[in-house]
Structures are given as C-alpha cells and as structure tokens.
Amino acid sequence: MVVVAAGGLLLAGLALEVTLGLLAVIVALQVLYTTRHYVFTLNRLFHTQPSLYAAIDSGDWPHVTVFIAAHNEEAVLSGCIEALLKADYPADRLCIMPVNDRSTDGTRAIIDRYVARHPGRLTPFHRENGPPGKAAALADATDLVVVRGDSSLIVVFDADYLPEPQLLKQLVAPFFDPEVGAVMGRVVPQNAGTNLLTRLLDLERSGGYQVDQQARYNLGAVAQYGGTVGGVRLAALADAGGWRPDVLAEDTDLTFRLLIKGWQTAYLGYAECHEEVPENWSVRFKQISRWAKGHNQVLAKQLWPMLSQGGLHWTSRVDGVALLGVFLMSPLLALGWLATSALVLFGSDLGINANLAIWLFIGAASFACLGNFAAFFEVAAAVHLDGSRQRLRLMPFLLVGFLVSVVAVTKATLDGFVLDRLLRRTFTWDKTVRYRQALPPVEGPLAP
C-alpha cells in the first residue's frame, strides 16, 4: 500500500510539473504575441507611414493578365467582370482571363457571353479536368500566359471581388521597382452591414489589414501576399518554383517562397477592394478550418527553409516564425485552459492554491494577445484610423468570434496533423457560400 501510494504521489507530482511547464510555455508565447501586436499597433498610431508607390498614376504601364478565379461562381462572376471592364488601365495592355475551374453551373456560359460581347477584351480559360484547388487552376492558367508571352505580371481576384477602376494601376505601380515580386491590397467586406457576424468580420478585417499587415510592411517584417487583390511578377513566380497544387494556402506558401528567394512583397493599404464575407457561422467555421489547415501545411513545409536561408534580415526571420505559428496558438490556448481547469479542480490536493481567477486570467490574456486574428487593441486602433468610431460598440461581441475561431482552428489543427494522417483522409474543399444576387443575364451570343 505504501509503495502504491508513493507511486501515485510520484505520478501526481510529475503531472503537476508537466502542467506547470506547459502553462509557463503558453504564457511565454502569449507575452511574445502580445508584444508583437503592441509593436504593430504603436507603429500604426504614432509613426510616419511610408507610401512609396501611392503617387504613381502615370508611366509606361506593363502588359498584365488579370485572373478571375472561378469555380461555380455564377452568382457573383458578372459583377467582377463588369468591374474589370471599367478599369482605368490601357486596354491594349490588359488581358482579363476568367479562370473557369471545372465549374458545373452557369459559370462557363456567363464567361462565353462576355467574350462574345467584348471582343478582344477577355481571354477565357476553361479548365475541364486536372487536380482540384485554386493553386492547380492558377498553375495551368499561368502556363498559358507564359506560352502567350505578352504579360510580365499577373493580378488575381476571386470572383466575388469588386475592384474599383483605379485599383489595377495601384496594384501594378510597385512593379516599377525591380525588387518587388508580389503586391497585396486591402480587403474590405462589401456586405458588412448584413448581420452581427458580417459586422464582426468587418472589424477583424480592419485590424488585420489596417494595422497588422501595414505595420509588418512598415517594419520590414513579412508582408503577406493574400491570394486575391494581389499581383505577382512572372519572373519572381518562376524563381520561387511556381504555384504548388499540393498546398491549400497557395498564397501563404508563395509569400514565404518569395521571401526565401529574396523578393519583396509590397502591401498597399490604400488599394482597397470589396469582397463578400460569410453571413452565417457554419460557413465561417468551415472557412477558418480551411485557412488553418492550409497555413499549418505551409508551416511544416517552409519553417526550416526560412530559418536556414542566409541573408534574411532578423526582423523577417523572427516575424516569419511568428506568422507561421499563429494558427498553432489556438490549440495551445485550448490546452492551456484545460490545464488551468485541472489546477483549479485538483490543485488543492497537490498543495497548489489555484482558483477560478487563474482560469479567467488565462482566458482574458488569450483574447488580449490574439483576439480574432487581430488583437482587440489592433481592432480599436484600426477603427480609429478608419475614422468610424461608432463600430467600437461591437467590440465586446468579438469574444464570440474569438471562441468560434479557437474551436475551429483547434479542430482543423488536430485533423491536419493527426487524424487526417492516421485515417488517411483526403481533403474536401468547402467552397465559401455566395450571397450576392446574380446580375441579369448578359445579352449576346455564346462565343464560338
């Protein structure tokens, strides 16, 4: 009995040491991420913001091909095409290429009618087979652009985006700098006023783009190419190895491969474009899960190449690690809450004076340091910078989105790193639901 009791105490003591060590690591990571977000926020609030390319409105504009990524996008595709046809860009140096990726709805018919109605303005790319996914479709379309040989740049929009006339010139202007390999604009929700969720996502986007992205670019950290409302230099894309169809987050993957190869990514906070955001929580849950799986996939692929690459500035290297690891924080925080709960419930038996205040502190600190992909003080700073302070009244509701994100990201991380591999599950793409009403059918014959 004495031996059993001693063994039980030994195991309990070991469990206590592991729990306390885990909490120490989690708290240390919280401190690091909180410091990072405060640095970004202070930079945006009190430092002069460079706008190296904003004044460029004339020049020898290069030939550019604009991809519209479209898979079953009959509800929104017409709006994007109509917007691009009004672009303030030399028509003889612009190729609009809708990339129809194996659509089974009316997407192909819509594209063909626009091609017939606007001869010479659109070059359709109908992809009828091949591996699924946006990266695979972009890779095939890029091969066609390379064969044609007329464009040195590509710009990418998802089909639900509504670019303003001046946006193309804004996105292309940084490429006059030969060191720029990619550019990224700011995403603004078009349906922000629909319901509580869309308003919260509007706040999240503001914090992420107005503060987080802009500060990273200002500080020489890792400016991120976001896969839409962005452009890529074909020479840089080829140097980085092209699009990789085996990754879910082709944008994050390309961001780090360009970084490793020494190309710069320019973030343009003034180059705004409107998108649709999810209007119900189930769609949002699936969207976050897809992002988390894709991001963690890039973490596994690019962490060591980035750390081992010589010549990177220390700010890029440190911020690169933080950016790659951001989706791991949700499962770690969830684990921290479980560990703290165990201390609250059983700590007194082991001589630990733990109470509910510790659990509440860990939870509050988690929300403070990460928030809903942008720390709450980053969101507040973004609202101030945007000049729309009435949105501050929604700040307490961000906690709801934060909790949903923690659950979704934690589940996606466990699936991606453990369950999908053990059960040999293949990834099923959950297409984001569209809400905007389709434009009236385009008049005119089908293209031959």
TrEMBL record:
Say which domain of life the source belongs to: Bacteria
Annotated Gene Ontology cellular components are: membrane
State whether keyword DNA repair applies.
no
A GO MF label: glycosyltransferase activity
Give the InterPro entries listed for this entry. Answer: Glycosyltr_2/OpgH_subfam (IPR050321), Nucleotide-diphossugar_trans (IPR029044)
- Keyword annotations of the record: Glycosyltransferase, Membrane, Transferase, Transmembrane, Transmembrane helix
Where does this one sit in the cell? Membrane
List the membrane topology term(s). Answer: Multi-pass membrane protein
Task: Name the predominant localization.
Answer: membrane
Residue ranges spanning the membrane: these are 6-33, 321-346, 358-382, 394-414
PANTHER family noted in UniProt: CELLULOSE SYNTHASE CATALYTIC SUBUNIT A [UDP-FORMING]
Write down what this protein is called: Glycosyl transferase family 2
